[in-house]
Design a protein that fits this description.
The chain has four helices and six strands, in the order αβαβαββββα. It is an alpha+beta fold. Strands 1, 2, 3, 4, 5 and 6 form a six-stranded antiparallel β-sheet that branches. A hairpin with a 3-residue loop joins strand 3 and strand 4. The chain is elongated and about 80 Å long.
């Protein structure tokens, strides 16, 4: 009886160890092969003075989260817009330079009042969508950053936006 229990226990430990090594390895290679990038959202941009609402999962931030009072993750997603003094076009150009200098970030769309970039995470190659909109009525630049796939982002979008903000606020 003891040998049978010991045999089952050894097999269970071997199986758990195998899964603990194989599953992360498979996920890593899936990322390297581009299977974790997700699809480009078709509803990005500014519509009626608003960027897309925050995601329904804790993997996005938006300076317009308060515009969606019934959104279940409004509090989690809420982040301050970018403030500036002087010319809004100059402020947006400054953001353009910051985005272009960021590793693993590609500026996809640049208009007079809107920027859209795609940022790729280093290890698993997840792609996040980052948008900036110059709101002339408010004299701010609104921001939205969201993961395409996954349930959580472990604050990656918030950290990215705050890092951009820190660079933006430097002279």
């Amino acid at each position: 009886m003891k040998h049978r229990i010991k045999g089952v226990l050894v097999k269970a430990i071997w199986f758990i160890g195998f899964i603990a090594i194989v599953l992360p390895t498979l996920i890593f290679f899936a990322g390297q092969l581009g299977f974790l990038t997700g699809k480009v959202p078709q509803d990005l941009g500014v519509k009626d003075g608003r960027l897309k609402p925050p995601s329904n999962t804790p993997n996005s931030v938006s300076s317009q989260a308060k515009l969606y009072p019934d959104h279940p993750l409004r509090g989690y997603a809420d982040i301050a817009p970018f403030t500036f003094s002087g010319d809004g076009q100059a402020a947006l150009k400054k953001l353009t330079g910051i985005l272009r200098s960021m590793p693993k970030t590609v500026l996809v769309t640049e208009t007079a009042d809107y920027l859209y970039a795609q940022s790729t995470t280093p290890t698993l190659k997840f792609t996040d969508d980052v948008e900036f909109w110059l709101s002339p009525a408010e004299n701010v630049i609104h921001v939205r950053s969201a993961s395409r796939i996954g349930r959580k982002d472990f604050a990656a979008n918030r950290t990215r936006v705050e890092n951009i903000r820190a660079q933006f606020q430097q002279n």
